[in-house]
Amino acid sequence: KENAATRILFFIPGKDLILMRTGIVRRIDDLGRIVLPKELRRTLDISEGDPLEIGVEGRRIVLEKYSSLSNMEGLSSLYLETLYQVCGGVPAICNKENVLAAKGCSISSTASIDAAVKEKIKQSKTWFCSQSDQLSVFPSGLFPIRVLIPIGPGEGRPMEGAVLLLDNGKPYSDQQISFASYTAILISRLLKEIEE
Question: How far apart, in whole angstroms, are the C-alpha atoms of residue 101 and residue 138?
């Protein structure tokens, strides 16, 4: 019989639960806290301040990175559909892990987005493609991004994701970028309402 103390289950969005034996045992302190080892936090891209959802599966405790944006995926898809109908192009919405929805292209919602995209989201500023600064949704270079507009509750809290305008073979107009910005603002306000 295996010792449950040496097993940890991790949920990676778009993938099945993965059992990873670490051999690491941590004691719970008097306030009920445990410290996740630095190696695990780095491997799973868990940073200080990241929300984790705690669940129970049988007799196991499961920690999952929490994203308010992922929990409102249906509403985000509706906004994205509206953006697509109004301004065309190839818009997408992603959280900090993967693409939640896209229009005008067939894109994987289970593959992890490129680390550079995650970094741009953390910077909390609208990003525009240039000759010297190129970005793609995936590490393979698939789906080049022309504009990235962060989504998040603001007020010093980390960004949850972004509205992306993907390469469609021609430049986006100021009006299309404005519509994408309004979409990001609306979703951000909803996130703020949900968190309060």
Answer: 14
- Dmax (CA) for the chain in angstroms is 63
Averages of pLDDT over each 10 residues, the chain, 196 residues: 44 54 83 88 79 84 75 76 89 89 87 92 91 92 94 76 91 93 89 73
Q: Which residues are within 8 A (CB) of 141 and not within 5 positions of it... i.e. 6 or more apart?
A: none
Residues 6+ apart with CB under 8 A from 40: 8, 22, 46
* Angstrom distance (rounded) from CA 137 to CA 145: 7
User: Residue 9: which residues within 8 A CB-CB, separation 6 or more?
Assistant: 17, 18, 19, 20, 57, 60, 62
CB 37 within 8 A of CB 22: yes
Determine contact, residues 10/54, Cβ cutoff 8 Å.
Answer: no
The closest of 19, 21, 23, 22 to 10, measured between CA atoms, is 19
Residue 108 to residues 73, 105, 137, Cα–Cα distance (Å): 15, 10, 10
- Single-letter residue type at 118: K
Q: Are 173 and 153 in contact (CB under 8 A)?
A: no
